[in-house]
Amino acid sequence: MLNKSFAKHYCLMLLPGLIWLFFFNLFPMYGILTAFKDFNPGIGILKSPWIGWENFQYMFELNDSKIIFRNTVAIAFAKMVGNLIVPLVFALMLNEVKNRMFSRTVQTAVYLPHFLSWVIVAGMMLDIFSYSGPVNQVLSGMGFERILFFADAQMFPFLVVGSDIWKEFGFNAIIFFAALTSINPEMYEAAAIDGASQWKRLTRITIPSIMPVTVLLATLSLGNILNAGFDQIFNLYSPMVYSTGDIIDTWVYRAGLIDMQYGLATAVGLLKSVVGLCLITVSYSLAYRFANYRIF
Amino acid sequence: MISERSAFTRLFNGINLILLVAIMLLCLLPVWYTLSISLSDKAAASAGQVFLWPKGLTFGSYNKIIHDDQFFTSFFISVQRVVYGAGISFIVVLLMAYPLSKTSKEFKPRNVIMWTLVFAMLFNGGLVPWYLTMKSLGLINSIWGLVLGGGLPVFNVILVMNYFRNMPKELEESALMDGAGPWRILFSICLPLAMPVMATILVFTIVYHWNEFFQALVLMNKSEKYPLQSYIRQVAVIIDPTKMDEETVKNMSGLSNQTLNAAKIFISMLPLLIVYPFLQKYFVKGITLGSVKG
Fold it and tell me: Hey, which of A197, A221, A249, B75 would disulfide with A230, CB 3.0 to 4.6 Å?
């Protein structure tokens, strides 16, 4: 049994973290008041006059709000599906390789993009998808028209979703690798003795064994349906693709910090946070009920 | 293990291997292409003649970067930010995770603090309140705004806390018997055993601080104070809306400093390219232990 007098030492240990938490995580929440005020930076948050729900009403009247909501959900949903299926299929493919050296090499290579920032990836994409870049070279070589990828609103969501999957599938596959290595090898041996082919073993043992993890990850990802990826879109988009590429977070940035519509931007951000919190709570409790998963 | 060599199995394995090699190349080629561009002759690069190999090999762009003060200033700011940021969060996360790994019987306030942390992780005021806070704390144009502005990495605290919880109780109890106090137990017993998970969060924070560009964009009024990623964004990524009519886009690669920008992009990812293969085993261990146990 631990000593009672340790409690004050524990409090001392927690102190730096709690101060940090207070100033940089909790204190900003007080700024949420701006959503209900006609905020004037000159006189501060407290002295600015209350306007109640006006910012929220204005938000629903805006034409932009439908567009950004639709774009956010569409892009986030496509990423959610892609980021589940591609890593799963990739992990299953790599699991069939018995040569350790080879699978190590492939793994090291596919983790790489995860560690690059979206600034760098966007910089590389601008080169690769530029008018005279390799993708257009190949397209024109096959007799197609060259495409101005970053000015094409039809193309933009595909670039966004595709590049996100490219960047993250290797890293997302780690969880599947872990699940695959924990499958009892005796099951494979028993199946092999019973005459099951490699294909049968894949479909009857491997895939059912990692289904629980897959379902769990799908459940948890539901909480992110309003997060379409600010860093990525912020680096890739331009006014020409606002109609399909503008999402809640990028819109909030422009409304709040560029156009100085503090109250409106806070209101939109607040609505997003509240809905997001509800979704995460629901998905976590579902994960707890069905998969017995807890974060703390 | 019985191995069978049917025609189907061989075909299946063959196609699988080819696809995997293709996937691997898909991940590496963009980086390789950027390197090729950076080493190519300007005219060849803008004419789209570079594919997998530099055309008209020249180190001109790298030579230019050596004389580019702004690049080095930004590089140094990024290094500074990584050192401070990773150091601070390493210590603070360790100090928080240990007491929180105790049960609420052993340490009463534990549950209240835990719920506050989880709430802070899942909910935030959003961009504008964050900006107003940073402004009122006087952190505009300050490196500390970048180091602390991301807030407490709650997820890392939970990761380390779960690790401590799974450690055998007897270790601490025997140290206690030998007369060790809480600080000594933490630093001499728990920390050495927690090195795998601590290394993992160290990798995560280093990568986070090296790659983060947005906070600097908002907090720094002068571009001389940008860390590397924000600087790169400013010179190489920004798609200037005023230049976006079709004609200019077609000519853009000719006008811009494509090879120089490629060189800057390549140098800024070089540190990560060098270290991450060595850190791989840690983050793989850390991420599987922190999230889903298979």
Answer: A249
Is the Cα dihedral B268, B269, B275, B279 positive or negative? Answer: positive
Bridge partners, A37 (sequence order): A50
Angstrom distance (rounded) from CA A146 to CA B126: 40
**B126 vs A103: CA distance, rounded Å:** 42
Phi, psi of B107 (to 5 degrees): -140, 100
Classify residue B8 as exposed, middle or buried by CB count within 10 Å of its CB (0-12, 13-18, 19+).
exposed
Global pTM? Answer: 0.88
* Residues within 8 A of A (CB atoms), B 209-228 only: 210-214, 218
Q: Which of A182, A236, A238 sits opposite B241 (nearest CB)?
A: A238
Domains in chain A, start-ordered, CATH in brackets? 54-291 (1.10.3720.10)
- Interface with B, mutate which of A9, A274, A296 (most B CBs under 10 A): A296
Q: Which of A184-198, A246-260, B197-211, B274-288 has the lowest mean pLDDT?
A: B274-288
Q: Could you tell me the residue ranges of all domains in chain B? A: 24-57, 68-291
Tell me the per-residue pLDDT of A14-52, one tens digit each, with 9 for 90 and over.
999 999 999 999 999 988 988 888 888 888 888 888 888
Reported ipTM: the value is 0.88
Residue A106 to residue B20, Cβ atoms within 8 A: yes
**Between the CA of residue A180 and those of A207, A256, B2, what are the distances in Å?**
9, 46, 20
Is A213 in Cβ contact with B292 (below 8 Å)?
yes
Nearest to B101 by CA among B190, B36, B30, B41: B190
pLDDT band at B246 (very low <50, low <70, confident <90, very high): low
Residue window 73-92, chain B: list those with CB within 8 Å of chain A. Answer: 91-92
Residue contacts between A and B (CB atoms, under 8 Å): 321
A contacts of B294 (beta carbons < 8 Å): 175, 178-182, 210, 213
Half-sphere exposure of B89 (CA within 13 A, CB side): 32
Query: What digits encode the pLDDT tens for the residues B23-65?
Result: 999 999 999 999 998 888 877 777 777 778 888 788 878 888 8
Structure token digits, residue A291: 């998969």
Rg (CA), chain B: 25
Q: Fold for domain B68-291?
A: MetI-like fold (1.10.3720)
CB-CB neighbors (< 8 A) of B108 in chain A: 7
> pLDDT tens digit string along A201-257?
888 899 998 998 898 888 888 888 889 999 999 999 888 888 998 999 999 999 888
Residues 147-206 in B contacting A (C-alpha not used; CB under 8 Å) = 148-152, 154, 157-158, 161-162, 172-173, 176, 181-183, 186
- Quick one: angle between helices B7-38 and A118-128, nearest 10? 90
SS3 of residue B158 by DSSP: helix
Sequence-ordered strand ranges (E) for B56-205: none
Classify B179 as helix, strand or coil.
coil
